[in-house]
Design a protein that fits this description.
- This protein is 20% helix and 35% strand.
- It is an alpha+beta fold.
- It has an eight-stranded mixed sheet.
- A hairpin with a 5-residue loop joins β22 and β23.
- α2 runs antiparallel to α10.
- The longest helix has 20 residues.
């Protein structure tokens, strides 16, 4: 129980202060005038002024609340080094026993670190915030951390904690432990394919000799050098391909080092192409010409060069050259001097018209074998005697025209292999029977000699074939009616998805590889994914950052895709292999010495309140009347 005094003035504060001033002046006059009964009169005036303030005596009945102490236990993987786990458990037991002796103290133990599913570092203060989410700040007695000192969410200011209480850290390990680690100072997240990016790192290990550092990109060693500890070192790394480029920086281990796990730092640099240069050659104006142009022009990553042959050389009608508003087709510049500047060449209904000399087709075939790409969108031209197949390109094209065409409505379908291929897998409408897209009305008959047919027309005739030639790629679309999908005929079809995937597969977009092994990180989950055109895939060996291995059997997830998901319980570089393909993924980013004190709080909860007005009722009447009576009696003497 606690007693106090409160005021509930009967008049405004200004009136009370004025009454105080008047009473004070009158009291001075009475005292210095040596009037009879000066003391009694002063007390009477004070009581009348006090009555205006209306004082009350309050009583509060309180029940005390416990103070709360939190012990945060670090369960991150780095706590597994040496005998740190044993030290942690011993300290935890000792704290539990000693804190339990303190009366009116509630002790909460909370475990934190990657063992709780965190993959972005050891976040002890996040766990602390959760543990104190239901505790008022004035009940917090203190916090004790049992950790190795590697914490990734330390607040910038103490005020961010939200309470004023002692915070202690009990550091596991031993005083003379040695541990070398690689620290990233600056690292880019993106890089232009074909250009270099600079990565700056530092080897931390006080008093140690220079470290031998190896730099690997996608598992291949690209640099080795000696690095003095504590010195910032910058290296230039070439970005060879689009998608993730895994750069690993590893320092040699020390004799007797605590662990070699943090001797390695990993950077994932996403390679992006500055511009994908595409050359589109339309053999003649036709209804589907703008389908290709509009698609490629709408892609911000594509730099399109488009030529349409409006006047082939054999067309001689006597019109003077100076009266023609056409430009000459720069064949020598495009197909000899600058052909290697293009990632993709598209021939849209192109036939031999004497525009391109035969030698330039040899250049194109060589360009493909050396890593370029060609897409032939065929129409009646491909079945004619002037077919582009009847050029040196016949050795790279996947099908020979029979000279016939199929006319009549049909719906394109995915082949069994097409249902697995990343270019056509999951196309909207493909799962229905018949497919939920519009009909086409022309198909060039051809005899496949190589490659993979991913779409077919009537009587299972090939419609879209994909082929690899040397280091390059070739696609052959045996119909010029895809524009019907673009125009919305009979509801249209997924022309944008199909043509965009097709063009990006030709330009070697990593996400569209037919045979691929990938490691995908989503929060605490690590997914091993295998893309294959085969009927089955083998087991995958997964290696954790600490070197532990395990064998995974992948399960079918969708046509052409097998997956297996595990918990990513370690930070660092994970490696997967099936004996042929390899995949890499980086998980995560990665005072007082001799006393402990807790601040005991005196918080309580109010169970009852009593209020007794001093000048209310009979008590107030007796005080005021008594003071007047005392004054009258003093005057009467």
């Amino acid at each position: 129980m606690s007693l106090g005094v409160s005021f509930s003035p009967l008049v405004p504060a200004a009136v009370i202060w004025a009454a105080v001033a008047v009473a004070f002046v009158i009291s001075l006059l009475i005292v210095f005038g040596r009037s009879r009964g000066a003391l009694v009169r002063t007390i009477a005036l004070a009581l009348f002024v006090l009555a205006l303030a209306n004082p009350s005596i309050t009583r509060e009945d309180r029940d005390p609340l416990t103070s709360v102490a939190v012990v945060v236990v670090d369960k991150s993987p780095s706590q597994e080094f040496g005998d740190r786990l044993q030290q942690t458990e011993a300290v935890r037991a000792a704290l539990g026993e000693r804190l339990g002796r303190i009366p009116n103290l509630e002790v909460r133990f909370v475990e934190a670190g990657q063992a709780d599913g965190e993959t972005d570092g050891t976040r002890l203060f996040t766990a602390l915030g959760s543990a104190l989410s239901d505790v008022p700040h004035d009940r917090v007695a203190g916090v004790l951390f049992i950790t190795d000192g590697r914490v990734h969410d330390v607040p910038a200011e103490a005020a961010a904690l939200g309470f004023a209480a002692p915070v202690h850290a009990l550091i596991t390990g031993h005083q003379n432990e040695r541990d070398r680690r690689v620290v990233l100072v600056s690292a880019p997240r993106f890089g232009i394919v074909g250009q270099t990016q600079t990565i700056t790192f530092r080897v931390e290990d006080q008093g140690a000799p220079p470290a031998q550092v190896a730099v690997r990109r996608d598992g291949e060693t690209i640099d080795q050098r000696n690095v003095r500890p504590g010195t910032n070192v910058s290296i230039d790394v070439q970005i060879p391909h689009a998608g993730p480029n895994i750069v690993e920086i590893e320092a040699s281990a020390l004799d007797g080092e605590l662990t070699a796990v943090n001797n390695r730092a990993v950077v994932s640099v996403d390679g992006v192409r500055d511009k994908l240069r595409v050359l589109l050659v339309s053999g003649e104006p036709h209804a589907g010409e703008r389908t290709w142009r509009n698609l490629l022009k709408s892609d911000a990553s594509v730099d399109l060069v488009h030529f349409t042959i409006l006047r082939p050389p054999e067309k001689q009608d006597g019109t003077p050259i100076n009266e023609l508003s056409l430009i000459a087709f720069p064949t020598r510049e495009l197909f000899q001097q600058k052909i290697n500047e293009f990632q993709l060449i598209i021939f849209d209904r192109y036939a031999r018209q004497g525009v391109l000399p035969i030698i330039y087709f040899d250049n194109i075939a060589r360009y493909v074998r050396q890593g370029g790409a060609v897409l032939v969108a065929a129409g009646p031209d491909y079945a004619s005697q002037t077919s582009i197949w009847r050029t040196p390109l016949d050795v790279i094209l996947p099908a020979e025209p029979s000279g016939r065409m199929t006319e009549g409505g049909y719906r394109a379908r995915l082949t069994d292999l097409g249902k697995r291929h990343p270019v056509t897998r999951g196309l909207e409408g493909a799962d229905e029977d018949p497919p939920h897209w519009s009909r086409w009305f022309r198909l060039v008959d051809a005899r496949p000699s190589k490659g993979t047919a991913v779409m077919q027309g009537p009587d299972n005739k090939p419609l879209l074939l994909l082929s690899r030639e040397g280091e390059g790629r070739v696609a052959l679309l045996l119909s010029d009616h895809i524009w019907l999908w673009a125009r919305g005929y009979e509801g249209g079809g997924p022309h944008i998805d199909l043509l965009r995937r097709l063009s990006h597969w030709l330009m070697k977009q990593p996400d569209l590889e037919e045979e691929a092994l990938r490691l995908l990180v989503r929060g605490r989950d690590l997914t091993v994914q295998r893309q294959s055109m085969g009927d089955a895939v083998g087991e995958v060996t997964l290696t954790s950052p600490s070197g532990k291995t395990r064998t995974l059997t992948l399960s079918p997830a969708e046509p052409g895709v097998w997956r297996s998901t595990i918990e990513a319980n370690e930070l660092g570089l994970w490696h997967a292999t099936d004996g042929t393909l390899n995949a890499l993924a980086n998980v995560g980013p990665y005072k007082g010495d001799d006393w402990l004190g807790l601040r005991m709080r005196e918080s309580s909860v109010v169970r009852g309140i009593g209020v007794l007005p001093v000048f209310g009722g009979l008590i107030g009447l007796l005080l005021l009347v008594g003071s007047l009576t005392a004054t009258w009696m003093r005057e009467g003497r």
